[in-house]
Amino acid sequence: MNRPSGRSIDQLREITITRNFTCHAEGSVLVTFGDTKVICTASVEKNVPHFLRGTGQGWITAEYGMLPRSTGDRMGREAARGKQGGRTVEIQRLIGRSLRAAVDLKVLGENQITIDCDVIQADGGTRTASITGACVALVDAITAMREQGIITGNPLKHMIAAVSVGIYQGTAVLDLDYAEDSNAETDMNVIMTEQGGFIEVQGTAEGEPYSRIELDQLLGLADAGIQTLIEKQRVALAL
Amino acid sequence: MNRPSGRSIDQLREITITRNFTCHAEGSVLVTFGDTKVICTASVEKNVPHFLRGTGQGWITAEYGMLPRSTGDRMGREAARGKQGGRTVEIQRLIGRSLRAAVDLKVLGENQITIDCDVIQADGGTRTASITGACVALVDAITAMREQGIITGNPLKHMIAAVSVGIYQGTAVLDLDYAEDSNAETDMNVIMTEQGGFIEVQGTAEGEPYSRIELDQLLGLADAGIQTLIEKQRVALAL
Amino acid sequence: MNRPSGRSIDQLREITITRNFTCHAEGSVLVTFGDTKVICTASVEKNVPHFLRGTGQGWITAEYGMLPRSTGDRMGREAARGKQGGRTVEIQRLIGRSLRAAVDLKVLGENQITIDCDVIQADGGTRTASITGACVALVDAITAMREQGIITGNPLKHMIAAVSVGIYQGTAVLDLDYAEDSNAETDMNVIMTEQGGFIEVQGTAEGEPYSRIELDQLLGLADAGIQTLIEKQRVALAL
Amino acid sequence: MNRPSGRSIDQLREITITRNFTCHAEGSVLVTFGDTKVICTASVEKNVPHFLRGTGQGWITAEYGMLPRSTGDRMGREAARGKQGGRTVEIQRLIGRSLRAAVDLKVLGENQITIDCDVIQADGGTRTASITGACVALVDAITAMREQGIITGNPLKHMIAAVSVGIYQGTAVLDLDYAEDSNAETDMNVIMTEQGGFIEVQGTAEGEPYSRIELDQLLGLADAGIQTLIEKQRVALAL
Amino acid sequence: MNRPSGRSIDQLREITITRNFTCHAEGSVLVTFGDTKVICTASVEKNVPHFLRGTGQGWITAEYGMLPRSTGDRMGREAARGKQGGRTVEIQRLIGRSLRAAVDLKVLGENQITIDCDVIQADGGTRTASITGACVALVDAITAMREQGIITGNPLKHMIAAVSVGIYQGTAVLDLDYAEDSNAETDMNVIMTEQGGFIEVQGTAEGEPYSRIELDQLLGLADAGIQTLIEKQRVALAL
Amino acid sequence: MNRPSGRSIDQLREITITRNFTCHAEGSVLVTFGDTKVICTASVEKNVPHFLRGTGQGWITAEYGMLPRSTGDRMGREAARGKQGGRTVEIQRLIGRSLRAAVDLKVLGENQITIDCDVIQADGGTRTASITGACVALVDAITAMREQGIITGNPLKHMIAAVSVGIYQGTAVLDLDYAEDSNAETDMNVIMTEQGGFIEVQGTAEGEPYSRIELDQLLGLADAGIQTLIEKQRVALAL
């Protein structure tokens, strides 16, 4: 089997992580997984949702969007249509849930960090790129909060990163681009910690069901890919 | 570890599947997983979404709702608030995707089956009960289509069923009720075919990340539970 | 004239009232008028709308919905379309207004009871079945409030019930089913108290105007039907 | 009992009907019932709703609105809030239904007449003023259609008019203004034809239930009032 | 060049300003620019938007609407469509901004005046008629506030008025009606104070770009027209 | 007077225009006016709005958005709030109108070009940067259409560019950044062609009215600035 990109089956696309991409947000990262490019910002707000007021606990939430022409055909702008589509809602819930699993919300105090992931160019894997970039923006926002004295402790429990894996033409491959993703038999998104713990696994059979053996192959590829991604996050953060 | 319900760790709640629960739909099932009760209907329409017209292929879609007082506290009615919440959207996308994986859409012809899953009483596991009940309603709808001569072949590829598993107080358990689900460390929904293939695996760490060993335990419990559920579907359908 | 159902002109359909139909609501009733089946729940909230805060007075409000396949053809889900239709709004305003007329809102204190009427199967007369069932759910909710010490007095002024009457093929008939309702010349909904007082009369000429004589016949049928319905409510409540 | 306005119990407010109030609509009427002022327009469109295409039958529909400061306190603009309130929906459905009962939709051909009733000043009875004025606008629109050769026959079956009656301080009175309406024990809207047939009766107990004797008194007042209103419509139309 | 109306190039249409047009609002004006007729009301509320609370400063905001049949073809009602169109939003922002420039918001105290401009008949220039009429309604509302002791000083800094100018068939003309407006090469709206200061200039090339010479001609016409309009406002207000 | 940025009163910020910024759109430009950064894409669609079908004429439309954290404080995402704000609507109408004035819509055939301007970092002047960048994206899209044989002629009539001018601390200045814009007495946006014709002038007094002399100064500054911008567009396009 030859991947359209010529990559080996366990090879990530070229990954770049650019911090301070825009100037206003406490954390602002441009992350690229090959031709997939996402701006991830982390915004600090001294306020929490209603259900947390008075609990001393903070919150992390996320919103996701795609520029209308980030894709091959122009998509209608969700703001103009007046509602976010089901896919958008699903992705932003995943991003928020994943990043909440990376921090101790009690150490965050009654502050909220809002993650915005806006895709400016899409070529598959936008949700995994978003989570991987957002974690770096989150670290920068936490650093800013500590420098400003908003919090004293470090709420970060562990770095997290995300990658897609899938069965393409019968073979398990890592980090699918759009050419692969749109033809994959199985598509799986995996989010893990730097220690190798699972935050989320979502594996969907697009055509035929997948077997336990395939599932194990996919998780193996994902594990290795995520460790590489976390290394790149650390380099970007100079940790 | 004692489960709140006194069940053993690999024990499903009492499952009932009542066909022909209401009179208008081509398939109408009341499914109960213990105190979780869901009405699943399958409605046949001789029409397909725009993107399928002229392809000869059919479609299955799903909608999900909860009666406002299906839960302990009354939830706002989504029709009154003017939009479906993120959780609703996520669940109905999952139901539709899963059932599409059970049928050969080409054999369905240019017809659409709409699955409605409406929770009248909730006690955890509403999405897995929905999928398990909806598959029975789907079979009844397919039978009706064949009897009416709308289609000639049988589009059903295999029965599917769904169950939740999770880590509760450090132990992997099957089919969580609300008391467990709201306190679980990890929550996983598994949808499988009667042959044991995976349609969807969604596992989320609610607190600490979960390990590979825990993931394997959860999949093992799910596999056994699903085979029991499919047996109950077959009994209900007198297959 | 023969009614499609073979009933006599002053004969109600078979009426059943099942209390405690679901487990979470303070009042939960399944009411059936023949093939029309409605789940009516009454939910207590220690809060009132903004315009009543500080007045010491309570409120009763109602919401109404139909499951998409409660009808012969599947109706679009209002939550998915993003708004409640005009018919829904009209019916839920009628239900709320009628039940408010059954209670002394001052004795209710600053508490709100929300009535949800969800039609799971429709065969005409869903609004009158809803009101008749909701009044029983309301009584149960009031009893629960008194048992929990939320209120001390009894805010219920009188039982109310509702029934439809209409001119079908030139003859006044009681409790129209769908076959009659969709062809009736005049359709009237009547809500009355156990003492025979009128809460609401809504009579609409669907085709030709109706005469004063016909109006009198309709009110006579409704009066008798409502007394029977209230007797059935009392039996269900063991009053 | 003294009415706040000093009127006798069976006395209408001063009624004026001004045709051709604005210049674009096929029918345009300013109707006033005392201080209640409504602009009623009838717009002809050579098109019908989807469900009537190909049937040869026409349609009449209505929309209702209030200018934000038509009332004592400014009401939020429905266009700005993004939805029509329940009261608006209920009223416009009543107006449309009533006027459809005045015409033979088959004679209308596949044309639609849209009635717009916009309240510029409110003092009670806006829906009955709307229907009374709209019937005149409708007649003008029908005349225009006949003059333009859009239709040949006369679809008008009979003039209709509407009036409110109610129990105010224990006495049945005709044509309630806001001072009465906001304190009435019972409020009833009656729509009748020039021949005395009923199109719609809607009577609501706002406080105590009303008796059959009171209902009869209210219908008697309404009948007389409506005959006067229809006479005023005829004068305005020079019929 | 002959104007369709026969007016000279610097001639306004017939202007009327009728105060106290409706009875509830603190200021209520019917303004007509020829066949364009707008009801402008000013409503006083002892409250300000969130961002002004505690600042001691007031606010003026505006909303604009057109009755559905104010135009040659019936327009869909914005309340029914569920959103205000772009043109509406643009116009009401312009009206609000212009009137805020006429008053000292600090002298207004923490009070809000809401301007509603509702077009009952349209023939071009609805936004300029709206602003011109609204300024008179605003003065009446301010007078009412002072009489009621809500404020002590006079927040009005200067009268303002608005007029449209444009290039029609190559010639600069004043106060375009619909016949001109829909064919103009350039359309400009000018809002000025009684002292001749500019509040807003909005000039748009509909076809070919316009030159500096044309711009100067348009501003000259507008200046003269606005002084006439302000004189008419003064007469109406008996200033 | 010293400008916060130290610029002279007639000095633009540093302007950059980067073509082919993203890979999918027919035209894709990153434009920066100092710290204001906007992605402008032009998307070609072989289709026109309903009102143009069969006319042989094309259309240009525009949509505008800001990433939530493009600004100092995070703004709510319009897609999540379910509607575009008034400012957004106003700006995207201005962008669309301006670009339509740059092309001969007849030469475009029945094709639509959609301009998306998405602000990734804001520091004042986002609408003028958007128009200036969008014109370059438009030229690239037109070139692509000609290369693909979609059109044969060149619909571009002239380049256009836009700049803001304003009165800041009593002095007319060119190209206001946020520090100036948020404190300016008068704010004016000017859109002109390469030949010096006006497409649009929008000048608003934020505080005191502005005089004719000030207006003339502002137009003078804008004229010079726009010629510089058009030169930069030409360099970017290698024209």
Written description of the protein model:
6 copies of one chain form a homohexamer. Chain A has 239 residues and is of the alpha+beta class. In chain A, 30% of the residues lie in helices and 29% in strands. Chain A has a single domain (15-237), classed as 2-Layer Sandwich (Ribosomal Protein S5, domain 2), CATH 3.30.230.70. The first copy, chain A, is built from 5 helices and 9 strands. In chain A, strands 1-2-3-5-4 form a 5-stranded mixed β-sheet. The radius of gyration of chain A is 18 Å and the shape is globular. The mean pLDDT of chain A is 97. Chains in contact: A-B, A-F, B-C, C-D, D-E, E-F. The interface between C and D is medium-sized, with 30 and 31 residues.
Q: Tell me, what is the CATH class of chain A?
A: Alpha Beta
- pLDDT averaged over residues of chain A: 97
CATH superfamily of chain A: GHMP Kinase, N-terminal domain
Radius of gyration of chain A: 18 Å
Question: Which pair of chains has the greatest number of interface residues, and how are they split between the two chains?
Answer: A-F, 34 and 34 residues
Count of β-strands of chain A = 9
Q: Rough shape of chain A?
A: globular
**How far apart, in Å, are the first and last alpha carbons of chain A?**
38 Å
Question: Which CATH architecture of chain A is right?
Answer: 2-Layer Sandwich
CATH structural fold name of chain A: Ribosomal Protein S5, domain 2
Side by side, the strands of the main sheet of chain A go 1-2-3-5-4
Query: How many distinct helices of chain A?
Result: 5
Please state the oligomeric state of the protein chains shown: homohexamer
Order of helices and strands of chain A: EEEEHHEHEEHEEH
Structural class of chain A: alpha+beta
